[in-house]
Every structure is written in C-alpha cells, then in structure tokens.
Model the fold of this input.
Amino acid sequence: MAENLDLASDYSPTREQWLTAVDRVLKGKDFDRTLVTTTLDGLRIEPLYDGYPTERDESGFPGFDPLTRGAHAAPREDGQWDIRTRIVHPDPATANAQILEDLANGATSIEVQLDLGGGQGVSIRTPEELARVLDGVVLEAAPVSLRAGTHAAVAADWYRELLAARGVHGVEPSGSLGLDPVATLVSTGEVAMDAQMRAGMEVSNTPRVRTFLASGAPASGAGASEAQEIGYVLSVGLLYLRALIDDGVDNPASRITLEVTADVDVFATVAKIRALRHCWATVLENMGQPIDSTQIVAVSAHRWLTQADPWVNILRGTAATLGAVVGGADAVTLAPFDSATSLPGDLGRRMARNTQLVLQDESGIGRVLDPAGGSWYIEAFTDELAAAAWKFFQRIEAADGPVDAADEIGTDIAVVAARRDKDIATRKRPITGVSEFPLLDEQGPETSPPPAPDDRPPVPLTGPSHEATPWPQRRLAQPYEDLRANAGDTTVFLANLGPIAVHTARATFATNLFATGGVRAVNGTGADVAEEFKASGADIACICSSDDVYAELAEDTAAALRQAGARRVYLAGKGDYAGVDEYIHVGVDALDVLTRAEAAR
Done:
C-alpha cells in the first residue's frame, strides 16, 4: 500500500519528478504514443500543462486587445447569450408559426433559411411572402438573420423593404442579411459574385442587421480542421472588409458577422472561438479598424449529426453549446437532434431550445467572462491554434484570396478530411451509436413529412457567374449509415468456442463491430458449429475464442463452417489459420471489413 500523503505539507513536485513517476507507470511504453494526442492540425495535446509563460500572456482582460479573452469587458447581462433558432420548413405558414413559437418559448433571435428557387428552406417567391413569414415578429426587438444562398442579394433587398415598410429604425447591428457569396461558391460551385458584392454595398447601412456573413460552415462540412476553418473565415471576412472599406462604409467591421461551427470536442471549440477572435482582432488592427465591433456566432457542426441513434445528438448538441458559450460566442444556433433525418419535428426543435435554456439558466455558464481563462491547457491550445490558423490564412492570401484559391483550399481540406475518415473507419475516432454501441432496434423520433415541392419557377438572377469546384458536404456517420441501410436481414454466425469466460470478450467485440454495419449476430455454442450455422440462416461466420483455443480448434472450425456453406469466415483476433478469410481486431478498418461482408451476402 502506498504511503499516506500529508495533505498539510507543501506538495509541489517538479516536472522531472512527475515524469519519473509516469515512467514507472508506463513500464517502458512510449510516452508520446501513450499519453500525447495530436490534432489534425498537427498540434500536440500534452497530458500535463504545468505553466503558461508570462511573456506569451498578452491576452490581458476581456474586451481589450487582442480579444482572446472575449470581445466585451462586462459580463453578459444576466448571463444570457443570444439563443438563435433556424427555421427551415418549406411551408411559409408553418415557418411563421414555428418562428412565433420559438420566440415565445425562449429563443431571442431567429435565422430563416429561404428558398427562392432550387434550394432548401422556406419556399417564397415574392417580398409579400417574406412579409407573411415574418408576420407578428417585432423586428425592433427580435433580431432576424437570413440565409438564402444564391438569392441572398434578392432576399436582402426584400427584407430591407420590409424594415422600411414597418418603420424599423436604428443602426444597432443584431441580425444578419446573410450575404456570403464565397460560401455559396464553394458549396454549390457557382455564384454571381459581382452582383452579390454590389448588393452588399447597397444594403450596408440597413438598420438592425449586419450585411455580410463570413461562415466557416462550408469548410467544416467538407471536413476542415479547426485551423483550416479559422483561416478560411479570416480570408472571407477580410475580402468583405476590404470591399466595405473601398466603398467608404463607416465602421465596416460592424457590418460583418463571423460564423464558426461548434463541434463535439468542447475544448477544441473553446480554443477555436478564442483563436478566431484573436486573429480577427489582428486583421482589424492591421487594416486600421476598431476591434470593438467584433461579432462571432456559433452553429452546431452538421457533420457530427447522425441518422442512426439520433438521440445521441442531444448530447453532442449539449457539448457543442457548452464549448461555444465558454469560448465566448455572441449567439449560438443548435440544430435539432432529428434534423439529419428529415425536417425537424416539434420535439427536436423544443429540445434544441431547451438545451440552451437549461445551460443558461440552470448551469449559469454565461455568467462568467472567459471561464477558460487561466487554464494552461486552453491558453496554450488557443495560442498554437491561432498560429496554425494564421499560417493557413496567409497561404490563402498569397493565392489571391478565397475566391481564386477556392479549389486549392478545397484540396487542402480534402487531405485533412481523408485523415479523419481513416480514424472513423478504424474507430480510433468513435461515433457513439454508429461506430460504437450501435442499437439496431432503436426507436427513432416521429418525423415531420415535408410538403409537396414548390413547382413555381425560381426568382430570376442577373449577372455573370463565378465558378469553382464545389466542396463535398457530408456527415461523418454517412458511410456506416449507408451500410446499415443496405444490410437488410443480414446476420453473422458467431462460432463461440470454449467456456463463456473464454469467448465472451471477443464475441462481444465481434457483435459490436458487425452491428455498426447493420449485421446482426447469432451466437453459437460451439457444440456442433456446422449444424448451428445451418440453423442460423447466416451467410457469414466469425470464430470467437482465446488464442490458446484458436491454436487447437480454429482451422477445423473454419473448415466445418466452409463445408456448412459459409461464404466468408472471420476470426476475432489476429493469426494465420487455414480457412479464415479475414481477421477482425482493435484498429481494423471496420468500413472495409463491413463492405466485404455486404458483398458476401
């Protein structure tokens, strides 16, 4: 038994003493491989941070240059942040009802995704229909943000007319017109860039809203790392900033909203928002602009939403919201947990609102300015992430900005996305409910059926188009979900050899792995594997036991399974046994294994 620690003593070991103690525990294992994590940006996450050099601590106080610790010097009023909900239902009447319901039940602003033809969202074709969508909304009190893709300039002009018709005055920039032609370009491959930029200049002084949105969502959806997303947002924001400066707009930075995605990694989200704020303050200083008008909004990353076991999305959304608020986002939009399957249902929309309300009112996480400040880990992570993001930003600028460099940026992101895909395929980066702990008999939420498609022609657009290769937008769980959708009633027979205590661990592993692809496991006792396999109705089989049992029985069992009709024989573990087609073990490419299993049906 270890000696008792004298808690009254001054226990302050040195790093060398700590490393010595760790070395005894590791017993020869490599320190870096065991305890150090490397991000997709190549940043090291150490197991211990024992200080933060004071000469590097330039963060000062919240609200002061360089804004690392927050854009505001005073705490949020009553610890509240802007709880924003996104409206996507195609039917204008239903969309209006959802807007009023959200605002009456805790949301403080809304974002309306509009479809003026050929897109997704609330289907409208005239400014009068936009007015009906926002009927009953007190525009002076409830900030409205728009998202209309290729028709963003048209929607912005309609909304500007609506504000004038309703007599809304004042210049406080709360919502956003959502003009983001670069995002449209990289998402769809085409945009009338000049027309949208000109429209941005014309509506730059619209009351109550900011004009341009520099969103990192397209980069995130394509698989970007944290540094890549920040660098991309900086380059897009700078493009819009330069255009506003050239047009003579007063305080141009106050017309731009920066948007980043909040991911399931809480600490990475915190560091990402802090690093973006720091880098953007540096951009504004170099452009001779005040930094006190910075606005950063966060949206939950769509790439982590799952259709399989969507209830886990509630936990993912909670983590994303926590990271966004601790990082200092001014507004947070949380996607309903069921939005990857179809239109969000009433339960999903209510849960999205209430997740933020519970964190705000019961957890009180918004009452403290920069709660991550002083954490040596977060401070170091923020610094390193900001440096990596700045390098990526400089590469984009050296390539003449995000428009001309769109294809090059997409290629760089694809390289990182491929590395993440490999981690997901090998389950090094697990997706709960999908690649780990799958539930094949889960009961999903009730879905909201979409209305009939709007067959009216789209609102016409004018002006030449700028083209680029669109960045693929997909969810990370999609490959597993595709396998599950095509699995049907496929089963795998588990030839469990030896006593329960001997085969249980590997049988459980095999059951879990095959279930990630929708393949159900049927357990055999090993008494007569050939007859048990025939009775199971399975096409494939997997031998499960210990290495000692494998040495004695694996080859005979594989031969018996072959003779009984098994199209493919697996073994849980490693080895080299005649008759075994494939070995499944920790670190194996599960997607590759499951794809071949599907082909063997």
